[in-house]
Write a structure and sequence with these properties.
With about 350 residues, this protein is an alpha/beta fold. It has helices at about 35-45, 60-70, 100-115, 135-145, 160-170, 195-200, 235-250, 255-265, 280-285, 295-305, 310-315, 320-325, and strands at about 5, 10-15, 15-20, 50, 80-85, 120-125, 150-155, 175-185, 205-210, 275. The protein has one domain: NADP-dependent oxidoreductase domain (TIM Barrel, Alpha-Beta Barrel). The strands form 2 sheets. The chain has an 8-stranded parallel beta sheet with strand order 9-8-7-6-5-4-3-10. A two-stranded antiparallel ribbon has the order 1-2. Helix 1 packs parallel to helix 9 (about 280-285), helix 5 (about 160-170) runs parallel beside helix 6 and helix 7 (about 235-250) packs antiparallel against helix 10 (about 295-305).
C-alpha cells in the first residue's frame, strides 16, 4: 500500500479507502460483525489507514463497529464519517439537512457511537439545496477550532456550490473542503464535465464511491448476458465497457475489478477509490489492485470504450474553432504543466 496527501493538506492516507456501509446487517443485507472485523483486519494488514463511514450507515451500527475495531490503535487510522441524512424515524424536519444545528447534533452523536474524541475527516453527505454555504463552512470551521474534527469534505454536491463554498472559506479564513466524494468509475464518467475539473482547480482529493460501477466492472456481466444488477437491466453500452475491462484483465492476468480500480489510479489528480464488500475475499481481491499497472495503451483503450460527451462548454472548448481563436491553432504545442484546469 502506498499513501497520498489528502488534497491540499498534509494528511497522509492510503491509496485505497475502506468503505464500511456494509458493516452491520440492520438493513437486511451487509456483513456480520465477525465478517466486518475480518475485512477491517485484511485492510489494516495491507497497510490501509483510511476508513470511511457515515452516521446513517446500517442505522449507526457501522459507526459502532468501526469505533470498536480502531479503538486500540485510534491514532493509526484516518477516520471519516458524515452528516446530513435523516437519523430520526419520528418525522423531525431538523434531523436531516446541512444546517448548523444538524451538523452540531450529528457530530456529537457520531463521536459517541465511534467512541472517540475526534474525527479526522467530516463529510457533508449530500447537498440539501437550502442551507447557505456560509452557515455550512462556518460550522465546519467551528468544529475544527473545537478539535472535534480535523478536516472537512463534501459528498454528492454540484460543482458550482462546492466552488462557491470553498471560495468563501478561503476569503474568510475558514476551513475549506480538502476532499470530494462522488460516484466515479468507467461506468460513470459524467463527473469529468464539471466536478473533476473543479476538484483539480481547488486541489481537492477525489474519493470515488461505486468504483466498480455497481458490480458491472467485476466481470460478472458481458455482452449478450441477460443478467441484471439491482439497478435493473444493463445497457449494451455498459456491457461493452465491461467487455473492454475483461479484455485488459486477460492480457495482464488480473481480475476485472482490479483493472477498473487501476484505471482510477491512472487518472490525473489525487484519486482514492472507496472499496467495500460483504465478504473479506472480495475485499482482498480489490486490495490487490494496488499492484496492477496499466500501460498507456491500455488506459487509452479503456478511455475510448467508456468515453462520454462532455456537453457544453467542454465539447465547445475541444473544437477546432476555439483552438484556432483562443490558442492560435497551437493548443497541442503548449505545455500545460502546472495549469490548474
Amino acid at each position: 500500500m502506498r499513501y497520498k496527501l489528502l488534497g491540499n493538506s498534509g494528511l497522509r492516507v492510503s491509496q485505497l479507502c475502506l468503505g464500511t456501509m456494509t458493516f452491520g446487517e440492520d438493513w437486511g443485507w451487509g456483513a456480520s460483525r465477525d465478517e466486518s472485523k475480518a475485512m477491517f483486519d485484511a485492510f489494516a494488514a495491507a497497510g490501509g489507514n483510511f476508513i470511511d463511514t457515515a452516521n446513517v450507515y446500517t442505522n449507526g451500527t457501522s459507526e459502532k463497529l468501526v469505533g470498536e475495531f480502531i479503538h486500540s490503535e485510534r491514532d493509526r487510522f484516518v477516520l471519516a464519517t458524515k452528516y446530513s441524512l435523516n437519523m430520526d424515524a419520528k418525522g423531525n424536519p431538523n434531523a436531516a439537512g446541512n444546517s448548523r444545528r444538524n451538523m452540531m447534533l450529528s457530530v456529537e452523536q457520531s463521536l459517541r457511537r465511534l467512541n472517540t474524541d475526534y474525527v479526522d475527516l467530516y463529510w457533508m453527505h449530500i447537498w440539501d439545496q437550502s442551507t447557505p454555504a456560509e452557515e455550512v463552512m462556518r460550522g465546519f470551521d467551528d468544529l475544527v477550532r473545537q478539535g472535534k474534527i480535523l478536516y472537512a469534505g463534501v459528498s454528492d454536491t454540484p460543482a458550482w456550490w462546492v466552488a462557491h463554498a470553498n471560495t468563501l472559506a478561503h476569503l474568510r479564513g475558514w476551513t475549506p473542503f480538502v476532499a470530494l466524494q462522488i460516484e466515479y468509475s468507467l461506468i460513470e464518467r459524467t463527473v469529468e464535465r464539471e466536478l473533476i475539473p473543479m476538484a483539480q482547480a481547488y486541489g481537492m482529493a477525489v474519493t470515488p464511491w461505486a468504483p466498480l460501477g455497481g458490480g458491472i466492472l467485476t466481470g460478472k456481466y458481458s455482452s449478450g448476458d441477460e443478467k441484471t444488477t439491482r439497478g435493473g437491466k444493463i445497457s449494451e453500452e455498459r456491457r461493452a465497457i465491461a467487455d473492454a475491462v475483461v479484455a485488459v484483465a486477460k492480457e495482464i492476468g488480473a481480475k476485472p475489478s482490479q483493472v477498473a480500480l487501476a484505471w482510477l489510479f491512472a487518472q490525473p489528480g489525487t484519486v482514492i477509490p472507496i472499496v467495500g464488500a460483504t465478504k473479506s475475499a472480495q475485499l482482498i481481491d480489490n486490495l490487490a489492485s494496488v499492484d496492477v499497472k496499466l500501460t498507456t495503451d491500455q488506459v487509452l483503450r479503456l478511455d475510448e470504450a467508456s468515453k462520454i460527451d462532455l456537453g457544453f462548454p467542454g465539447r465547445f472548448y475541444a473544437g477546432d474553432a476555439v483552438n484556432r481563436l483562443a490558442h492560435g491553432g497551437m493548443r497541442s504545442q503548449i505545455d500545460w504543466t502546472g495549469a490548474r484546469l
